[in-house]
Known about the structure:
The structure holds 2 protein chains of 2 kinds.
Chain A lengths: L5 H7 L10 H19 L5 H11 L11 H10 L10 H16 L15 E9 L6 E5 L19 E9 L1 E9 L3 E3 L7 E3 L7 E7 L7
Antiparallel strand pairs in A: 1-3, 2-4, 4-5, 4-7, 6-7
Helix pairs in contact in A: 1-2
Chain B lengths: L1 H12 L3 H4 L15 H13 L5 H12 L4 H25 L7 H12 L4 H10 L6 H12 L4 H13 L6 H15 L5 H11 L10 E2 L2
Amino acid sequence: MSTIDLRLQAVLDGERDAGDLPADLRETYVRLMAAAELLEAAPRLSVAARVMAEVRQLPAPAPLQNLGPMRRAVRWLSRPRAVTLRLRPVWTLALAAGLAAILLLPLQPPTSKPTPGASEGVANFVGHFPGARSVEVVGSFNNWTPGVLPLNDKHHDGVWHGTAVLPAGQHEYMFVVDGERWVADPLAGRYVDDGFGAGQQNSLLIVRPSTAEP
Amino acid sequence: MRLRLAVMLVLAAAPGLLAAQSGPSRLQGRVAPAALPTIDSIIAVAVAESLPTEPLVQKALEGSAKKIPPDRLVSGVLHGLAQLREAHALISQAVPGQPVPEGHVVSVAAALARGLPPPIVQRLVAMAPAEPPGPVLHAAADLVAHHFDPDSAAGLLIDAHTKGLRGVRLLDVATAADHELQRRGGRTHAEVLAHVRDMLPNVPGPKATVARP
């Protein structure tokens, strides 16, 4: 055990003045006082305690009861919460299998094909009219009313397509190009004189009922 | 002049029909006012004679959509009335003493418009009077349009019917004959018909719901 000089002890206890000490003891006294100051400057609280002290100094949020329902909902949604998810392994596997099935199954292409009734059939119209601005089908199935069944040139290659569900049976029709030029369907295969004396022929379409035997 | 005379004869044969019509015409607003009264009269005549009127209405709508001048429009509707009359008479002769369904009249008129000879039409209607004649008549008209002999074409279709083919399946007989004609060049039409007859009743069906040759 180290001993301390009694004269130095007396100065540390405040009983004597430091100036009375000899030079070597005075140097020791100075070092001791510097060490004591360092000890006083060291933190007295832990980090956690200091953080909590800072938090306590922050202004408290307004109580929920004082807020409107919308702000309460926003606050409830925006505050972080700890979520504990407990899953049985069997359910985890089932969930993974379900997700894999959804991702791996081929997607069904969206179908735009019209569905005919028992006494109806699907008619496909195709016409090659390069440079046409519009093509439509006008016939007995739409009371010869223009604008009811327009065809589309989807690929901008002059080939106009259209599909319609029509009553089974015989229908006369023509293509109307650019709203003014009446043209028989070159693919119809069946034609009938339109009876107006100019020798113009209507195309003839025979629609089979969708329930007809092949 | 001939058209006016024909219209006058129609109206003379059915006095008062124009006045007897009631309700707004389906053609109002679609058909030129100059042609509308006469066409309404023709339709009234069809009603009085128990003929179907829908083909006449459609013909008037068609002509108006095509911007046919009024005199030719009336002529076209009048021509339609004449075909309906002929069709009705043909069916009455083919199946005497039986009521004549409107659907049969429309089908027969369509077959006549396609150029099927009246005796062939009569023969095919008499084959199955209770069945709608549209498919068999169109099948026959298809064959005639492809230059098959009308009598032989009707004979083939009657054979097909005897072997159980009905309705739109009879159209497949005409399609099979046309395919055989194109596929086997050098064969006569008679040989093609004989080949198709051998296939009966197993002629190929359509690939699509719409019958196209």
